[in-house]
Amino acid sequence: MKIQRQAAEMRVLKLSVSIWVLVCVLLVAGVVVVVWYMRKKREFLRQRFFQQINRVRMENLRSRISPHFTFNVLGREINQFNGSEEVKHNLMELVKYLRRSLELTEKLSVSLQDELDFVRTYIELERGRVGEDFVATITVEDELEAARIMIPSMIVQIPVENAIKHGLAGKDGKKELMVYVSRETNGIRITVTDNGRSYLPQVVSATRGTGTGLKVLYQTVQLLNTKNKSDKIRFNITNRSDGQTGTEVSVYIPFRFSYDL
């Protein structure tokens, strides 16, 4: 009886070991499958994000006067222009703006310095249309190295363009536009403030446009944030809260932010 009991115990032990071995094999196989699936999913999402961002940016690109050839021809013809120097200067600035617009549209990120230089050119081109009472200031805190800080392309220009077109153009009295860049914790804060008409996204009018620029900007930020798991870009549009009319666009951009898709 004792021998039979020992034999039965050995069979139970062997069965238990076999079951545990099988469970371990299944667990390992499950982990391998999960890891393989996650890698495949990440690759699929990466490819989809890349296709989406390219589609968004190409849609924006197609909406602009684009070919480099056009700019070269315009520049050559303007150099031969015999009219006033002021008109010639404005036309050359326009060509510069259009060419730079194309270059920035083709890039996902640019330096803060390049973006602000582009914005300054745009402001000068629009100054005559906005009027003599137009005052624009661009301020970057001294401690910030604008040439080394990377930001999404057009993230300042589009809010500035909207402020001028939809907030300040046609406004009576003094028209103010302020761009301020400051350091905030582990990134920078960019604010674009105007004293024009307040932000009313629910209102559709001939002066408000189609919102294509903001749509492209929102989609770009959303795709980039999905790729960056830690700190993210935060983009907000609100009416001014200091008792004055106007709109404030506030953008927080982390220093350590990847623009690789």
As residue ranges, the low-confidence spans are 202-210
Number of strands: 7
Biggest sheet: strands side by side, in what order? 2-4-5-7-6
- Ends distance: 72 Å
General description of the model:
Residues 155-255 form the Histidine kinase/HSP90-like ATPase domain. One of its GO terms (molecular function) is phosphorelay sensor kinase activity. The protein has 261 residues and is of the alpha+beta class. The chain has three domains: 1-59; 64-106; 110-254, 2-Layer Sandwich (Heat Shock Protein 90). The chain is 54% helix and 17% strand. It is built from six helices and seven strands; from the N terminus they run αααβαββαββαββ. The protein has helices spanning 2-62, 68-79, 85-105, 112-130, 157-168, 212-227; strands spanning 109-111, 134-140, 150-152, 175-184, 187-194, 234-239, 247-254. The strands form two sheets. It has a five-stranded mixed beta sheet with strand order 2-4-5-7-6, covered by helices on one side. The protein has a two-stranded antiparallel ribbon with strand order 1-3. A hairpin with a 7-residue loop joins strand 6 (234-239) and strand 7 (247-254). Helix 1 runs antiparallel to helix 6, helix 2 runs antiparallel to helix 3 (85-105) and helix 4 (112-130) runs parallel beside helix 5 (157-168). The longest helix is centred in the first third of the chain and has 61 residues, at 2-62.
